[in-house]
Every structure is written in structure tokens, then in C-alpha cells.
């Protein structure tokens, strides 16, 4: 085998390994957003959340954060308010919302629930094995049906998933997701260092301008 062929073989193997890693549906994240390949669904080394690269969302690991009604304004006690507060408590970050769930669609950005269900093997055991606190029952989605004064929900059963819509005042379970990967969000210390660096540059520029030319 020539040197060029060896290099090509190594490159192909590396590409294959990277492809397998990037295809991982649920990547563990600690409470500070740090990626972790060793954190687990439950126990002392529990993941706080999981990043899903297919949907480009971070999913809170805890699927037992309470039940609430559906609210356009995310009123206190609503499913939206529960998702937001649980996300902040788990990660220190804002921006947590309910997953989408348009039951007319087979998955994707507009039906994240269906995509998650498919990615765990389309099974009740797969979903309960992936997330802590998962329960049989109905979970609210963020997808509203204003014409019917209702919103979509997902009912997880032992033998499948059933997506329908129902009136907003009903109390259903809550899941929290956040757009993007929390691991890519700079920590406050990073912002502070950046601002300090910019300040130092501005001071240096002002001093240079104030220096008289000979």
C-alpha cells in the first residue's frame, strides 16, 4: 500500500468515527453546559440535560417537573412557566420552552416530540431509559390551535404515542427544551474577560492618540 493510500485510509477512518459521533442523538450536558460522555440518565452522575444535534435543541433531562395549563402569556402556574423555571433552575439559563408537537407532521422542527420518540426507538422503554422522571401520560407542546382554543399534546403509552389537541385550561405534564446547544453559550466569566480585553484595547488606543508627535 502506497503512502498516499495509507493517508487516504486514515482519513476515511477518521471521517467515519466523526460521523458516528455527530450522529449521536442525545449528548449529555452537565448543569454548567459542559459536554459529558460519562454522565447518566439518573444517579449521582446524572446529566442535567441532553443536546439533540438533529433538532438542534437542548432537552432537560427531568421529565417530571410538574403539570400546568396552557397559556399564551406563560402565566404563573402554566406549563410554559414551569418549563421556563425548571430550565433556569437546572442550567442557570433562560429561554426554555415547551417542545413543538404538530401531530399532523411525522417529525422535525414542528413536531419535536415525534422526532424524540422516533430517536429513542419509538418505544416507551426507550423514552423512559433516555430521560429521568418520564411518566406515562400526556405532555403539553408549544403548538397552539387558536381556532379551537386548544393546543397540541402528546400522550405516551406503553404501545405507542398519540398526538391530539385539547382545551387550554386542562392540566398536563411539562417538558422543557432550549434552542441550540448550551455547551456553546459563553459563561459569564468569559464575557467579563472579553469586556476587560476590549477595555484594555480602548485605553491603549486613546493613549496612542494622546501621545504628541515630534
Q: Low-confidence segments, ≥5 residues, pLDDT <50?
A: 2-23, 189-195
Spatial shape: globular
Our measurement of the CA-to-CA distance between the termini, rounded to an integer number of angstroms, reads: 68 Å
Beta-strand portion reads 15-25%
Number of domains: 1
Largest sheet: 4 strands, antiparallel
What is the structural class?
Answer: alpha+beta
Mean pLDDT: 84
Quick summary:
The protein is an alpha+beta fold and 214 residues long. It has helices spanning 3-22, 79-91, 112-119, 124-130, 188-210, and strands at 27-29, 49-52, 57-60, 67-68, 137-145, 150-157, 160-167, 172-173, 177-179.
Descriptive overview:
By secondary structure, this protein is α+β, with helices and mostly antiparallel strands. The chain has one domain (3-207). It is 33% helix and 20% strand. The chain has helices at residues 3-22, 79-91, 112-119, 124-130, 188-210, and strands at residues 27-29, 49-52, 57-60, 67-68, 137-145, 150-157, 160-167, 172-173, 177-179. Strands 1-2-3-9 form a four-stranded antiparallel beta sheet. β2 (49-52) and β3 form a beta hairpin.
Amino acid at each position: 500500500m502506497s503512502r498516499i493510500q495509507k493517508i487516504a485510509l486514515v482519513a476515511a477512518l477518521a471521517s467515519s468515527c466523526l460521523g458516528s459521533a455527530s450522529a449521536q442523538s442525545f449528548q449529555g450536558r452537565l448543569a454548567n453546559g459542559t459536554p459529558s460522555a460519562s454522565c447518566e440518565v439518573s444517579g449521582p452522575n446524572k446529566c442535567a440535560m441532553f443536546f439533540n444535534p438533529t433538532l438542534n435543541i437542548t432537552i432537560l433531562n427531568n421529565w417530571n417537573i410538574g403539570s400546568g395549563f396552557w397559556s399564551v402569556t406563560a402565566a404563573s402556574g402554566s406549563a410554559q412557566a414551569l418549563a421556563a423555571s425548571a430550565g433556569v433552575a437546572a442550567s442557570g439559563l433562560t429561554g426554555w420552552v415547551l417542545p413543538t408537537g404538530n401531530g399532523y407532521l411525522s417529525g422535525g422542527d414542528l413536531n419535536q416530540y415525534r422526532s424524540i420518540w422516533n430517536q429513542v426507538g419509538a418505544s416507551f422503554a426507550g423514552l423512559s431509559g433516555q430521560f429521568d422522571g418520564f411518566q406515562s401520560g400526556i405532555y403539553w407542546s408549544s403548538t397552539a390551535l387558536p381556532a379551537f382554543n386548544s393546543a397540541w399534546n402528546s400522550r405516551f403509552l406503553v404501545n405507542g404515542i398519540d398526538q391530539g389537541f385539547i382545551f387550554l385550561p386542562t392540566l398536563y405534564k411539562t417538558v422543557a427544551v432550549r434552542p441550540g446547544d448550551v455547551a456553546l453559550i459563553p459563561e459569564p466569566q468569559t464575557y467579563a474577560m472579553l469586556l476587560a480585553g476590549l477595555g484594555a484595547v480602548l485605553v491603549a488606543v486613546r493613549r496612542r492618540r494622546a501621545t504628541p508627535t515630534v
